Amino acid sequence: MRLNLFVFIALISSLSSAQELTDFYLEESPIDSLIVLFDINAEDSVIAERIARKYISKAKVINDSTKMARGYTRLSFISKHREALKYLDTAITLSRNSDHPNFPTVPYLFKSDYLYENEEYERSLQSALTGYQYAREKSQIGHQITALHQINDINEMWGDYEKSLDAHRLTYKLLQQNKDSDQYEQNYLSSLEGLGRSFVNLKQPDSALYYFREGTSEALKTGDSATYYAFVSRSGTALYVKGNYEEALDSLYKADTYRNEFNNYYLPYYYYYVGSIYNSQGEVDEGMMYYRKIDSLYEARSIVYPELPEVYDKLISYYKEKGEYETQLNYLYKLVVVLRIIESKKRNINEKTVTDFEIPKLVEEKEQLIADLEEKNKISTTSLGWALGFLALSFGLVFYYFRRQNQYKKRFENLMENKGPEVEVEPSAIEDVGISPEIIESIMERLKKFELDKEFLSQRISLSEMAKSFESNSTYLSKVINLKKGKNFSQYINDLRIDYAVEELKDNSTFRKYTIKAIAHECGFKSAESFSKSFYKKHGIYPSYYLKQLQQSQK
Q1: In angstroms, how far is CA 543 from the centroid of its own chain?
Q2: I need a surface site. Which of 142, 254, 512, 553 has the fewest CB within 10 A?
Q3: What's residue 179's pLDDT?
Q4: What is the residue extent of each domain of the chain?
């Protein structure tokens, strides 16, 4: 579960939400007072939307893009997920070049939070990283800390636990050095939770309990029941690691009464720990019941959770012992699929963090080292600090640049040496997942022709339309691609397009003269950005770099 990182502005008691807000009244009200009115009436989405749209229209009249961005950000507060993201993207576009200290940082951070709540972790990470960079540029410590929490939380789920703990400690230290920063209380609670979670992951329950208990104490002071029970639930996970199963179960059950206050990730997390406690107590049938609930969530949401491999592994062993081989095979199929997805997700998130986050983190550590040296030696001037900081940053940037270039060069060489198509997955376990061998063979023949005819170059491909043309259905086509190609439908199409681009650029000198945008369109992508991301995801280098190296090799 994720503690709230953002809070709405406090209601101003001197203004009454019951005041009649006629169109004339809103038109005659000063523009800045409309934001106050919005915050007072935020609980009534109909009234709040009228106020926000009037604020935006007034901002348009005076051509103030930052105020327009603030209006669209407010609209996102009262909108459903997809509409909220649309308004936040508009706010980002309007305020990208704003001088205001909060823009476009705030819409980026809200967008990251919305995406996190919807379990779109990779997109959430990208928005948090961008928000973090803007917050650094504008010296907004509070926003930096908020972004760091979001970055750390995502990497904790899909990354290295030791590194995650280091990142949480760095954020906590930065927070303690800036207790007067915006949203200090919310960020302090998030730090306590993040540190505790990291210690649970590292099997250090006593350290985890220290931070969780501090969190419950702080939540009690503010009377925040949801946050209090969030920490109670987290304490249950630490007690489980400690082996205090009855106490752990009691904490998890107590906190579950507040499940509606927690985010979408809460249920798989809760089912996992309750099921694991029952398994540890020897009540395996009860434990497996909770594990099957996690599987049901995966089926319903198509969202991969970090616990799934262990859950499926335990279910496979359970049904093997019971002799229910068809059920065992079904979970084995799911395990293969989620392991591939998780491996890809971890790689993407870790690469993105290193690329966009490693240097800012390095700078923060160097700046802190300089500050410590100045304090220790009582340096009266800042010249030495500036010199050390410049040298450290320069060294870090140069080292990073050459390391990255070396990595890119090796990846380019590996790509040039790549021989032949990918090996298909052996069909050892596919016949018993509800698809006959004849249907599988038919779909594979259609896929072979689809690839030979390069139909993947069309921008209008969809799973449903492709299934119709194959005289099959979406479920069968998706399962066959997953099992025989080892990837989902989107990855399969994008990989075919990328393979085509690699070979065409290598062999066709005319093609190498195209712009990246033109190459993307020729290969079936709708934008240069999606093409570049898919190319990097598959080969670890960008198409511009690949094209440049090809051109140099032809000289």
Answers
A1: 24
A2: 553
A3: 87
A4: 203-259, 437-553
* Amino acid at site 520: A
Is 411:392 a contact under the CB 8 Å cutoff?
Answer: no
CB 272 within 8 A of CB 309: no
State how far the Cα of 114 lies from the Cα of 129, in Å rounded to an integer: 15
Please list, in sequence order, all residues whose beta carbon lies within 8 angstroms of the beta carbon of residue 182, skipping any fewer than 6 positions away. Answer: 140, 141, 142, 143
- Other beta carbons within 10 Å of 416: 13
Q: Tell which residue, 71, 109, 65, has the closest CA to residue 87.
A: 71
Distance CA(228)–CA(47), nearest Å, equals: 32
pLDDT at 159: 63
Q: In the numeric block, which tokens belong to residue 330?
A: 């079904």
Q: How big is the chain, counted in residues?
A: 555
Structure tokens at 293: 């609930």
Check: CB of residue 251 under 8 Å from CB of residue 233. Answer: yes
CB 264 within 8 A of CB 280: no
Nearest to 271 by CA among 314, 228, 213, 329: 314
Dist CA 345 CA 152 (whole Å): 15
3-state secondary structure of 305: coil
Supply φ then ψ for residue 216, to 5 degrees: -65, -40
Show the CA angle centred on residue 477, arms to residues 472 and 480, nearest 5°: 130
Return the structure tokens found at 543: 């198409």
Phi-psi region of 491 (alpha: psi -120 to 50; beta: other; left: phi over 0): alpha
Paired tokens of 284: 């395996």
Q: Rounded to an integer, what distance in angstroms lies between the CA atom of residue 522 and that of residue 554?
A: 22
The pTM is what?
0.54
Please state whether the peptide bond connecting residue 421 to the residue before it is cis, i.e. omega within 30 degrees of 0: no
End-to-end CA distance of the chain: 56
**C-alpha closest to that of 199 among 209, 190, 189:** 209
Torsion of CA 119, 121, 126, 130, to 10 degrees: 60
**Per-residue pLDDT tens over the stretch 244-271:** 999 999 999 999 999 888 877 789 999 9
Half-sphere exposure of 53 (CA within 13 A, CB side): 9
**Tens digit of each residue's pLDDT (9 = 90 or more) over 146-187:** 888 888 777 777 666 787 788 788 888 888 988 888 778 888
As a whole number, mean pLDDT of residues 347-366 equals: 53
Q: How many CA atoms lie within 13 A of 312 on its CB side?
A: 21
Q: Which amino acid is at 447?
A: L
- Residues 457 and 497 sit within 8 Å (Cβ to Cβ): yes
- pLDDT of 370 reads 46
Q: What is the mean pLDDT of residues 12-39?
A: 73
Per-residue tokens: 447:
């896929």
Residues 6+ apart with CB under 8 A from 248: 236, 237, 238, 239, 240, 242, 273, 277
Q: How many CB atoms lie within 10 A of CB 181?
A: 17
What burial letters (b/e) apply to 433-471, b meaning 16+ CB within 10 Å? bebeeebbebbbebbeebeeeeebbeeebebeebbeebe
Q: Which CATH class is domain 437-553?
A: mainly alpha
Distance CA 189, CA 169 (A): 13
